[in-house]
């Protein structure tokens, strides 16, 4: 299979729809797919026609995790060098996605198992189908959830829920995942793309520089003391003001005070009135 065939990309109305495209393998992540995902992220990150990235899966699965044959058995046959290379390729694009320049949404249509929790956590927001299935299957074949997966569930879930999924390998559906806060929302499968599009369009109305600095701040301040976070956020706002060539902060204040054209508690200011694009 050609590398470009394992990931599909479609850009429409400033939304990049990126799909794992190995439906016959339940979109399991192989070394080939991991390499291609890094290329796709590179290609899309600074395109002017892309404002939001949605990560989905073709067929009936989002991702069944790492490909046991290609990622584990075949890679391990190459020795430590092969193992470390494959780990770097997978962890590399997960990390890249966590700090992506554009906001990202995981659109989970079906199975999300094991290593699939890596890109799930890496996306800023996550919306799933009620029919989706989530689980940490590693314990069922004799290993612990590695590759950052244990860290993911501990960060996202209460300890009892994290421990249950880790030790039992039990599956939960989309509604349970939303209740646990593993995802933001769960909707019926036939409404999944519509709801994801609505959320993406909402993000497209926000100041893109503010979005980037805000999402990075959420990921960073959790490990800081209050005083450290306070100082960090002051510096980040100053940096955002510097990098925002549209002067969005001033424009937002102007439209609120002078034009009285919007209320910040109810919606965003009109980006089209800014003096330049960010």
Automatic annotation (TrEMBL):
Q: Which family does it belong to?
A: Belongs to the enoyl-CoA hydratase/isomerase family.
| Listed GO MF terms | lyase activity
Q: Which UniProt keywords apply?
A: Lyase
The record, for CDD domains, names: crotonase-like (cd06558)
Return the InterPro entries for the record. ClpP/crotonase-like_dom_sf (IPR029045), Enoyl-CoA_hydra/iso (IPR001753), Enoyl-CoA_Hydratase/Isomerase (IPR051683)
Q: Which GO terms describe its biological process?
A: isoprenoid catabolic process
The name under which this protein is listed is: p-hydroxycinnamoyl CoA hydratase/lyase
Lyase found in the keyword field: yes
Kindly indicate where the leader peptide sits in this chain: none
Task: List the EC numbers from the record.
Answer: 4.1.2.41, 4.2.1.101
Q: What class of enzyme is it?
A: lyase
Q: What's the source species for this entry?
A: Sphingobium limneticum
């Amino acid at each position: 299979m050609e590398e470009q065939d394992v990931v599909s990309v479609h850009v429409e109305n400033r939304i990049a729809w990126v799909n794992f495209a190995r439906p016959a393998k339940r979109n399991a992540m192989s070394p080939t797919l991991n390499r291609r995902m890094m290329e796709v992220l590179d290609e899309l990150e600074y395109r002017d026609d892309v404002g939001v990235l949605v990560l989905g899966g073709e067929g009936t699965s989002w991702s069944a995790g790492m490909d046991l044959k290609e990622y584990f058995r075949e890679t391990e046959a190459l020795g430590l060098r092969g193992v470390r290379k494959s780990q770097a390729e997978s962890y590399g694009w997960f990390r890249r996605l966590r700090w992506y320049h554009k906001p990202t949404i995981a659109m989970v249509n079906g199975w999300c198992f094991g290593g699939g929790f890596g890109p799930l956590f890496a996306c800023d927001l996550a919306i799933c189908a009620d029919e989706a299935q989530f689980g940490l299957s590693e314990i069922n074949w004799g290993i612990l959830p590695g590759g950052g997966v244990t860290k993911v569930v501990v960060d996202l879930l209460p300890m009892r829920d994290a421990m249950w999924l880790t030790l039992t390998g039990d599956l939960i559906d989309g509604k349970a995942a939303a209740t646990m806060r593993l995802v933001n929302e769960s909707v019926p499968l036939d409404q999944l793309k519509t709801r994801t599009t609505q959320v993406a369009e909402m993000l497209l109305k926000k100041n893109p520089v503010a979005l980037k600095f805000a999402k990075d701040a959420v990921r960073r301040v959790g490990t800081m003391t209050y005083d450290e976070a306070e100082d960090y956020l002051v510096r980040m706002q100053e940096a955002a003001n510097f990098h925002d060539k549209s002067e969005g902060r001033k424009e937002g204040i102007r439209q609120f005070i002078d034009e009285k054209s919007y209320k910040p508690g109810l919606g965003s200011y009109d980006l089209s009135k800014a003096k330049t694009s960010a």
